[in-house]
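Data availability (excerpt). The following record was deposited with the supplementary files.
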Amino acid sequence: MAKSPALSDLREWIKSGRIQVLGEILNQYMGIAPTDPRCEPYWALAEELDVPVAIHLGPGWPGASYAGSPESRARLSNALELEDVLVRHPKLRMYAMHAGWPLGDQMIAALYAHPQLHVDTGVISYILPKAEFHGYLKRMVDAGFLNRIMFGSDQMVWPQAIPIAIANVQSVPFLSEEQKRDILYNNARRFLRLASAAPR
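Predicted structure:
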């Protein structure tokens, strides 16, 4: 949070269209819970201006607490840490990047309790063994949340990982082609309100 932009600057950037999504919010690496009072003005601004928020919720690199992020804590992967924020800001459009892996029970509980919450596949779509990724995805699909799962690659440095991530979604054996397309495109189109883009 020490490097967070001033709220006045952020407001201007959002209103000008320079920023269309707030994220990836990396509080977890700094050991800062979403309910920390330092975060509250940012949640309020995002709700006020109706800008989606992408929060890191899940894995970083193995051993992050010992190599580069000493304040990082796995317990902050728990999606139930988002509850008080979502209740306080019911119009906030938030999605949990990396789908809160590996805490699937908590992620499903949060999705059930908070209809505005979505997830993206993020880094788990290519760093996990395919069977684990497919199994985690299946848990959320079987629980009824297919329409709130969005594709994500988490890629700024290794663009070669993007086709691997797409292939790992396309190879899911329990989804129809239409359902795969929902994850790869249509769910994000709806969540991000891309009205100018036709469903595909």
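Summary of structural features: The chain has a mean pLDDT of 93.
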